[in-house]
Amino acid sequence: MGDRDYAKNVLKLIDPEKVYFGDRVITRNESPYIKTLDLVLADECGVVIVDDTAQVWPDHKRNLLEITKYNYFSDKTRRDVKYSKSYAEEKRDEGRNDGSLGNVLKVIKEVYERFFSGGVEKELDIDSKDVRLLFHDARRPK
């Protein structure tokens, strides 16, 4: 829910050549009160949402993987949130295999592998491929 300027600055750092995101960014300027997949040009059955605020996705909870807040870049423009130092300001970060992003990466990798490996056809009817089914299954303790 960052504003467009904040999103552009983050994208300059993480995708400077616009290979992954291009200009496809949705900010609070486009959807100020709730987040919705209605603004995304993709079928819901192929989308996993990663967010730290579940209540802003009232219509897409099945697609949501809720994580703890990850604050790498500072955003001093947000008046609605108490300011705390970002990871970048503290010159530290989470580990690759632990913390919010590490845990999310494990789930997304498992979902991706099961969705695209050919195993999905065995688990699901090919016409009913839905990443949400795999996504929720991947989060269950083994």
TrEMBL record:
This is protein-serine/threonine phosphatase. Residues 1-91 form the FCP1 homology domain. It catalyses: O-phospho-L-seryl-[protein] + H2O = L-seryl-[protein] + phosphate; O-phospho-L-threonyl-[protein] + H2O = L-threonyl-[protein] + phosphate. GO terms for molecular function: RNA polymerase II CTD heptapeptide repeat phosphatase activity. Signal peptide: none annotated. InterPro entries: Fcp1, FCP1_dom, HAD-like_sf, HAD_sf. Keywords: Hydrolase, Nucleus.
